[in-house]
Design brief:
Layout lengths: L1 E6 L7 H17 L4 E3 L13 H4 L1 E2 L2 H14 L2 E3 L3 E5 L2 E9 L5 E6 L9 H4 L8 E4 L2 E5 L8 H9 L4 E6 L6 H15 L2 E6 L1 E3 L4 E3 L3 E3 L5 E3 L6 E6 L3 H9 L14
Parallel strand pairs: 1-2, 2-4, 3-5, 9-10, 10-11
Antiparallel strand pairs: 1-16, 4-6, 5-6, 6-7, 8-9, 11-14, 12-13, 14-15
Helix pairs in contact: 1-3
Protein name: Amidohydrolase
Organism: Peribacillus huizhouensis
Family: Belongs to the carbon-nitrogen hydrolase superfamily. NIT1/NIT2 family.
Length: 260
């Protein structure tokens, strides 16, 4: 499976500009014969949270239509990072998964809201996990701060996920945590991690990419690149089963000792 990680800058509070950028990136990655194209967190608006009343995508309609059309046109799967959406009178940080036929196969609202960026003031928490099929492979997807909750990633792995997609806007000052946590999640869950972070600046933060694809043994397939652009990695998916047979972590769990 060839993965395209779109490590993009995001125009703060300018959805139209970001939608145009997304279209160009999908076309470029499709020409490179990517199977799956992955975007960062909140790419439609950036963290312009106090402007969501005018910026958020109502019912996700613009995003879903665009991603569906482009996935079908280019015959690619898209992990749509996440976008700011509005449903009713509530706002969410939402990930859409689209298959190569243009079908929306999953939608996920960020479960853990990050108070240091005021998400809890403006957004609502998601209430369900995100496990889906892509090219016959069971995958999972969470968003940014969700990474700091190992039990949440493990929940997806226990439900069959062999690849975890993690879009983010992870600030430069904590980028060391980003790499350490991603590698830990890959090793402890014996799965591939595909993590896509943005680059550039918004009014309050600086972002320096370091998008990563990590194999089940923890080795970095791509990492530490700080420029805007598309990063590619090939996943050998049989490696997941090989690692899980070598060290049977899931079989050796002592659930009788764990507190819920």
């Amino acid at each position: 499976m060839k993965i395209a990680c779109v490590q993009m800058d995001i125009a703060f509070g300018e959805p139209d500009q970001n939608y145009t950028a997304i279209e160009k990136y999908i076309e470029e990655a499709a020409k490179a014969q990517a199977d799956v194209i992955v975007f960062p967190e909140m790419w439609n608006t950036g963290y312009a949270l106090d402007q969501l009343d005018r910026l958020a995508d109502r019912e996700g309609s613009i995003t879903r239509k665009l991603l569906s059309q482009l996935a079908k046109k280019h015959q690619v799967n898209i992990v749509g990072g996440s976008v700011a959406t509005k449903r009713g009178d509530k706002y969410f940080n939402t990930m859409y998964i689209v298959d190569r036929t243009g079908k929306i196969v999953a939608a996920y609202d960020k479960a853990h809201l990050f108070k240091l960026m005021d998400e809890h003031v403006y957004l609502n928490e998601g209430q369900s996990m995100n496990v889906f099929e892509m090219n016959g492979i069971t995958c999972g997807g969470v968003i940014c701060y969700d990474l700091r909750f190992p039990e949440w990633i493990r929940t997806h792995a226990l439900n069959g996920a062999k690849i975890m997609f993690i879009p983010a806007q992870w600030p430069k000052q904590r980028i060391d945590h980003w790499q350490l946590l991603l590698q830990a999640r890959a090793i402890e869950n014996q799965c591939f991690i595909v993590a896509v972070n943005r680059v550039g600046n918004d009014p309050n933060n600086e972002f320096n990419g370091h998008s990563m694809v990590i194999a089940p043994w923890g080795e970095l397939l791509i990492s530490k690149q700080t420029e805007e652009g598309i990063l590619y990695a090939d996943l050998e998916l049989e490696e997941v089963d090989q690692v899980r047979k070598t060290i049977p972590v899931f079989k050796d769990r002592r659930t009788d000792l764990y507190e819920l």
